[in-house]
Amino acid sequence: MQASWRADHDKLTFIACMPSSLASVKAGECDAPDRMIGDVNLFLSPADEDEEGCIGELELMIAPKDSRRQGYGRATILTFLHYIQLHLDGLLAEYKSKLGLDKMKLLQLKVKIGSKNDKSIKLFESLGFIKIGESPNYFGEFELVFEGFLDDERTRSLMDRYKVLDFREMQYHERVPLSAILH
Ligand SMILES: CC(C)(COP(=O)(O)OP(=O)(O)OC[C@H]1O[C@@H](n2cnc3c(N)ncnc32)[C@H](O)[C@@H]1OP(=O)(O)O)[C@@H](O)C(=O)NCCC(=O)NCCS
Q1: Strand pairing partners for 103?
Q2: pLDDT tens across 135-165, in order?
Q3: Domain boundaries defined on the chain
Q4: Which atom of ligand 1 is nearest to the CA of 38?
Q5: Range 2-168 classified under CATH 3.40.630.30
Q6: Which residue from 42, 74, 159 has its CB within 8 A of the most atoms of ligand 1, so it is best to mutate?
Q7: Which of 137, 153, 164, 176 suits a disulfide with 159, CB 3.0-4.6 Å?
C-alpha cells in the first residue's frame, strides 16, 4: 500500500516529522519512528462539470496528543500548500497522463472536516479556507475551500506570518537494502 501511494497518479502524501536542522535527509534518521508526528495528503479527483478539470482534497493529521497545539499542524499544511503550488505543473502532468487527457487544471482545493471538529476548522479558517454553506453535509462534515489557492505570494506571506521559515526541498536518501547490494 505504501508503494502504491507513492506511485498513484492521484495522490500526494508526506509524513510530517519533527523539525530538524540536519544538512541532509537520511531515511531512518529524520523520520525515525520517534520523530514522525503526522501526515498530510492531497487526493485529486475529476471535477463533475469539467472533463479537463480536477478537485484537490487535503487531509492533515498531527497524531501524538503531546505534539499538538505547537504550530506543527499549521506549519505542515502551509508547507504542503507551498509545495503543491511549486510543483503543480508536474502533479497535473502525472495526473492527466494516466487519464489519457491533454489538458488538466486544478479548479479547487478543499478540505472536509467533521462539523464538531472546531479546532481543525479554526486552523483551516486561519489560513483563508472558507466554509461552503451554513450547515454540514449528509456525512456531518463541513467543506471548506481555499480561496486563492494558486497564489504562492499569499501562501508565502502566511508562512512569514506564522513563522514557517527556512522551507527547503531536500533529497531523501533512502537506505539501500543489504540484499540489493549483495545481488
Ligand atoms: C487538527 C490538527 C491537525 C491540529 O494540529 P495542531 O498541530 O495541534 O495545530 P496547530 O498547533 O498548528 O494549531 C493551529 C491553529 O488551529 C487551531 N487549534 C488547534 N488546536 C486547537 C485546540 N485544541 N483548541 C482550539 N483551537 C485549536 C487554532 O486556531 C490554532 O491557532 P493558534 O494556536 O494560533 O490559536 C490535529 O488536532 C489533528 O490531527 N486532529 C485530528 C485530525 C483532524 O482533525 N484533521 C483535520 C481534518 S483533515
Answers
A1: none
A2: 999 999 999 999 888 889 999 999 999 999 8
A3: 2-168
A4: 39
A5: yes
A6: 74
A7: 164
Which residues sit with their C-beta closer than 6 Å to ligand 1? 59-62, 68-74, 111, 113, 117, 119-120, 122-123, 126
Q: List the residue whose alpha carbon is closest to atom 44 of ligand 1.
A: 120
CA–CA dist 114, 136 (Å, integer): 8
Strand 25-26 relative to strand 172-173, pairing? parallel
d(CA 14, CA 42): 9
- pLDDT confidence bin for 176, thresholds 50/70/90: low
Which residue owns the Cα nearest ligand 1 atom 41? 61
Distance from the alpha carbon of residue 3 to the mean position of ligand 1, in angstroms: 29
**For residue 127, what is the enclosing H or E element?**
none
33, 18 in Cβ contact below 8 A?
Answer: no
Mean pLDDT over the full length of the chain: 91
Higher pLDDT, 12 or 174: 12
Q: Which atom of ligand 1 is nearest to the CA of 76?
A: 12
Residue with CA closest to ligand 1 atom 12: 71
User: In 67-117, where does DSSP find H-type helix?
Assistant: 72-86, 88-99
pLDDT digits 0-9 by tens, 13-50: 999 999 877 777 888 888 899 999 999 999 999 999 89
